[in-house]
């Protein structure tokens, strides 16, 4: 069983001071508001209500931490790009997210959800700029891929990879759908590798 399938809620942090102690490898999940991040977490964990989805952008105002058994932890970051909230609250969330990404020494990987129909928005690019100095592996999941025809999925994947290469933003990219299950098992395997639970496949295999 994948480590993420052992996830259980640990704590919510509204400030850097609230972060739980760093005791092992940690994964972070991020994404624009309403991009399908909660649905993706639920699909990966094999649960219906591990993470709560909301139709109100910006509702999540904390970083939610989950234990992954003895394998490590997962941090669910607040959605970014929340235009409907006040400037003061947005600044508070920026401090929270920035403080986590730059100060968490146990962070081994960051998963960024982007809508496959509208990847690399201005807000997505801003977040990726935040990640430049962060020494952690990166994976971009193009969520809601089931809403695109197969040919369009392939074009979107290729376009996103090319745009990231041009911007020198190193990251793995994959199609994902919490509805159809596309990319779920592959993502679990990759996250287990990041956590040190599985060896990466040998070249040529």
Give me a quick take on this structure.
The protein is α/β, with parallel strands linked by helices and 205 residues long. The chain has helices at 37-45, 87-103, 122-131, 150-166, 184-195, and strands at 7-13, 26-31, 63-68, 73-76, 107-115, 137-143, 172-175. A hairpin with a 4-residue loop joins strand 3 (63-68) and strand 4.
Can you describe this structure?
There is one protein chain. The chain is α/β, with parallel strands linked by helices and 205 residues long. The protein has one domain (3-195): Rossmann fold. It contains five helices and seven strands. Strands 1-3-4-2-5-6-7 form a seven-stranded mixed sheet, with helices on both faces. The protein is globular and about 45 Å long. The model is unreliable at 54-58 and 199-205 (pLDDT under 50).
């Amino acid at each position: 069983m994948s480590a993420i399938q052992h996830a259980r809620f640990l704590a919510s942090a509204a400030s850097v001071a609230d972060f739980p102690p760093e005791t092992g490898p940690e994964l972070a999940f991020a994404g624009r508001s309403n991009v399908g991040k909660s649905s993706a977490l639920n699909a990966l964990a094999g649960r219906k209500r591990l993470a709560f989805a909301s139709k109100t952008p910006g509702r999540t105002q904390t970083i939610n931490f989950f234990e992954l058994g003895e394998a490590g932890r997962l941090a669910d970051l607040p959605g970014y790009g929340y235009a409907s909230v006040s400037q003061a609250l947005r600044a508070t969330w920026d401090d929270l997210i920035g403080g986590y990404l730059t100060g968490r020494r146990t962070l081994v990987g960051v998963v960024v959800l982007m809508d496959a129909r509208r990847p690399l928005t201005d807000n997505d690019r801003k977040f990726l700029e935040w990640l430049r100095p962060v020494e952690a592996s990166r994976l971009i999941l193009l969520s809601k891929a089931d809403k695109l025809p197969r040919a369009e999925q392939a074009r979107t994947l290729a376009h996103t990879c090319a745009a990231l290469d041009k911007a020198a933003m190193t990251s793995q990219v994959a199609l994902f759908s919490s509805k159809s299950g596309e990319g779920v098992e592959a993502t679990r395997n990759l996250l287990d590798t990041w956590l040190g639970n599985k060896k990466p496949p040998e070249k040529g295999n």
